[in-house]
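Repro:
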Amino acid sequence: MHIRRATADDMDFLWEMLYLSVFVPVGSPPLSKKEVLDAPDINLYLTNWGRSGDVAFIVEENAELFGAAWMRMFTNHEHGYGYVDDRTPEIIMAVLSSHRNQGIGSSLMSSILKYATDQKYRQVSLSVDPANKALNLYERFGFAKIGECDTSWTMLKTLYDCM
């Protein structure tokens, strides 16, 4: 298993990961891929990919893709559920259900946080439903709840403290 930067050839997989990143509570009816990816508040996480600040990492082994993590900058006028401010990138992540609980999410999070740190971002954010098992992963990596948006928590991780 190795992690690499995503390329334009990976866009279909990133869209698949975006669909998988949407949390559906146990007992709720599944959402169709079209329903999810056509929603403006969801597709903004990948629409017009390649803007300044867009970066994604993919986990693969023997040409099989298992998961992805990416980050994107937003503005107060167009933003995702984990928006904090115009200088804080939001992280989105998903792993194929058949490959969860194998350390892939941790490896992806390590990669994206290293990249954000190397790029001198002061902090990063994300959004998670508190019933999502991924919450434990995010807390292990030092993300803390700073607010709520609909049914999701906005979480923040400080990379550099300004004195």
